[in-house]
Amino acid sequence: MPSADLSQRNIVGIHAETVSNVTSTDFPGHYPGEDHTWNLANFKRNLRIKFYRNEPLHAEFDVVHIDASVANAFRRIMMAEVPTFAIEKVYMLENTSVIQDEVLSHRLGLVPIKANQDTLKRMKWYSKKPLPDGSIPSATTDDTIVFGIDVVCERKPNAPKPTATSTPHPDDLYVNHSVFAKDITYSPVGDQEESFDGNPPHAASPDILLAKLRPGQVISAQLHAVKGVGKDHAKFSPVAPASYRLLPTIEILEPIRSKAAERFKKCFPSGVVEVINDEAVVVNPRNDTVSREVLRHEEFKDKVRLGRVRDHFMYSVESSGQFDSDDIFLQSIAVLRSKCNVLKSHVETMLQLEEEKREREEGVVEDAEDVDKMDVDE
């Protein structure tokens, strides 16, 4: 097969109103004369991961030469199966604010809780399953982290008086008139303070506004945080969001020069196409949104070919604050690996049971043959 056809096999075609070449296969023997048998050494050699942006709350990176099923597995695991801490129970002691208890509890539950990996691994999963007597399991130091929030709003002494032309800012009038996530304080129980080694759990984003108070109003509650995953409740999800898209390709089929080059450039987002030496040149296809605007122009629709690389995945991961964005991706790999190990052990157990069943059946057949032989001899 010509090399051009081989290269296009890996490209999803983008046309004015349709897409083409949307399916693919690497099944061994599908293409005559080509060996696509999966090989670990080839996979390691071809796999590429490159970070273009790596900040605590936002990472952008490419993963190249993996199957779409694996790429999507990473995305789904980052959203739904990377464990984190979140507030599960709120014991409201006093709430005289204008916010109802249930609404305030919901807001508290959505506050991201940051804790180190060692803490997360040490803590056990909290069981919500009722005991045989119907009671709810009690919290323990092994599965629950306790927080508290106690805020009282008071009027500042010597606060300025409002006038006909101005109203003082609440900061000048009141103390603790706004309740923030930073007001959630960790309350160690048992040996937790020692085990957390000077790095206690805390609100990942201290400036989240929870409520507003006025003099005399109080919010006091005890909060229990447990370990969980996003598939149980969105409050446990460490990302917001995690997504990927395929790398766009822009192939100029014939030179586009002069004023036409400037018009061609304007069909794409800034930085995708530049005019160099009076000719349009694709400089950064990563920034293309694949709007297909260029295909609306008669002068260009036969001069350019748009597509997406089938196995080039461009990830964008935004952390909610519990972990650094790149660490979330690494944890998703660990979760997928553990899933593979579980599947492997179950398959091995199944094969072992099948082998034992086959041996028993062969033993029964041999015993029956021996009995038949004895009858013949007699």
TrEMBL record:
Pfam family, one: RNA_pol_A_bac
Record-level Gene Ontology MF annotations: DNA binding; DNA-directed RNA polymerase activity; protein dimerization activity
Matching InterPro entries: DNA-dir_RNA_pol_30-40kDasu_CS, DNA-dir_RNA_pol_insert, DNA-dir_RNA_pol_RpoA/D/Rpb3, RBP11-like, RNAP_Rpo3/Rpb3/RPAC1, RNAPI/III_AC40, RNApol_insert_sf, Rpo3/RPB3_RNA_Pol_subunit
Biological process terms in GO annotation: DNA-templated transcription
Record-annotated DNA-directed RNA polymerase RpoA/D/Rpb3-type domain positions: 58-346
Gene Ontology, cellular component aspect: nuclear DNA-directed RNA polymerase complex; RNA polymerase I complex; RNA polymerase III complex
Gene3D superfamilies the record matches: DNA-directed RNA polymerase, insert domain, RNA polymerase, RBP11-like subunit
Subcellular location: Nucleus
Keyword terms of this UniProt record: DNA-directed RNA polymerase, Nucleus, Transcription
Keyword Signal listed: no
Ranges for region Disordered: 355-378
CDD domains: RNAP_I_II_AC40
Family, as annotated: Belongs to the archaeal Rpo3/eukaryotic RPB3 RNA polymerase subunit family.
Protein name per the record: DNA-directed RNA polymerases I and III subunit RPAC1
Organism: Ascodesmis nigricans
